[in-house]
Amino acid sequence: MPRLILFFSLVVAIASPMLAQRDIGVLEVNADNRKIPVRVSGSTPELNALALQAFGANGRYHVVSSGFAFDIQFSAEGSNQVRVDVARGSGGSVASEVATGSDLRNALFAAADIAVSRTNGLGLRGFFTSRLVFVGKRTGHSEIYTSDLFFGDIRQITRDRAIAMTPRWSPDGDRVIYTSFFKSGFPDIFTIDLGSYQRSTFVSFKGTNSGARFSPDGRQVAMVLSGEGEPEIYVSNAFGRGVSRRTRSDTVKASPCWSPDGSRLIFTMDPGPQLYVMSASGGQAQRVSYGVSSYCAEPDWSRASPEKIAFTMRVGRSYQIGVLDLSTQSGKQVSSAPFDALEPSWLPDGRHVVYTARTAYTSRVCILDTETGSSVPVSPSSFGPALQANVWSR
């Protein structure tokens, strides 16, 4: 694969034959034995619809009208509060709590997260209050947007009218870092303060500047720069200063991602590409793809399950989501969609990922249960192409 194509393949849309002539919709997997049957209802049509959408996207649950293990009811307590009452199907109260949010919709998701924490039986966190930053093309241009997990409260935060890609949250959720071609016609890295919507140039060196990602403590940023020749991994402080090189070889690198404790970096490197892990301070890189595919890219390291890394893998002529388990030094394919599945980003339970589902005609953001393979779209088809979503959660 030519190196220029490789650069774009890792951060925009992989230049390859597309599968799938079908629409992107719900992909159910027959794994009900792993799911908890629940009855879910809301006191208003709005709350009822949101609750059903939320629990329908969580692969741990199966929404039913009878034969349920838990009955989960939501009711409005004000403009930004929702009460959740959870009872066992056999009788007896499990929980009754009031959740507060930024508005009624957000409060419902907060209440649903409480219900998940009290009923899932595996110690999983709820993920419904997570937020997304993503690339959308509803205007005909690649722009950066934010939204809640189910594409409510959508806000367009760039109007560059140029290629924009790989947006990533800061750990506190106050800033977004991304790459855009708008200023010079070449890829530079920018940050946007989500309070003021002020944009700042993070780095703008000669060559390509891409793949920027904050460390878990927010004090450092890893990125890919090619100003000294081949694309290499560099690290700076949180404001683009003190840039220091971490890799030195004649092969292309891309997509650096921090380990949950900030001590290591995983990234992709030719040939292949394949996945490699090294100390965040530099040094020898160790291949960790474990032979799962000849093409492994776009890694995302789970904060909830530090031994798990989600990534994009090639399967035949298509792309699917894979998961590496560092503790067992093994990897496996976790999606089997009739379309390309790529660009995973972990949700905070360490079980589900948000990813891009792509056909020859469009792309949508979906939630994948990595345990069962079930997939549910969260970006509406009416929005238009949406991709490269990155998750933020408290």
Short description:
With 394 residues, this protein is mostly beta strands. 9% of the residues lie in helices and 42% in strands. The two termini are 39 Å apart.
Task: Please tell me about this protein's structure.
With 394 residues, the chain is mainly beta. The protein folds into two domains: 3-27 and 127-392, TolB, C-terminal domain (Neuraminidase), CATH 2.120.10.30; 33-119, Rossmann fold (3-Layer(aba) Sandwich), CATH 3.40.50.10070. The chain is 9% helix and 42% strand. It has helices at residues 3-11, 45-56, 104-119, and strands spanning 36-42, 61-63, 70-76, 81-88, 93-100, 131-136, 143-148, 155-156, 164-169, 175-180, 188-193, 199-203, 209-214, 220-225, 232-237, 244-245, 253-258, 264-269, 274-279, 286-287, 296-301, 308-315, 318-325, 330-333, 340-346, 352-358, 363-369, 375-377, 386-392. It has a five-stranded mixed β-sheet with strand order 2-1-3-4-5. A hairpin with a 6-residue loop joins strand 15 and strand 16 (244-245). Helix 2 packs across helix 3 (104-119). The model is unreliable at 1-21 (pLDDT under 50).
The profile of the biggest β sheet is:
5 strands, mixed
CATH topology of the largest domain: Neuraminidase
Which architecture of the largest domain would the CATH scheme give at its second level? 6 Propeller
User: Total number of β-strand segments?
Assistant: 29
> What are the low-pLDDT stretches, counting only 5+ consecutive residues below 50?
1-21
- Bulk shape: globular
What is the assigned CATH homologous superfamily of the largest domain? TolB, C-terminal domain
CATH class of the largest domain, please? Mainly Beta
